[in-house]
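cron nightly-structures :: item 1 of 1
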Amino acid sequence: MPKMKTRKSAAKRFSFTGSGKVKYKKQNLRHILTKKSTKRKRNLRKAGFLSAENVPVVRKKLLPYG
């Protein structure tokens, strides 16, 4: 059986934590920042975590060797 290919777009967006959660960078922090509040921008800097029901999809289909 051949090796499965990693979806490179997903590999650049997601990473796994030690406990098995899927971590990603939040969106909306690239441009048009003047109208966004400081609190909102500060919270967007933090990493986001995928919900538990979406983790198996990322683990099996997108990042099989992650």
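cron nightly-structures :: done
The first strand starts at residue 14 and ends at 16.
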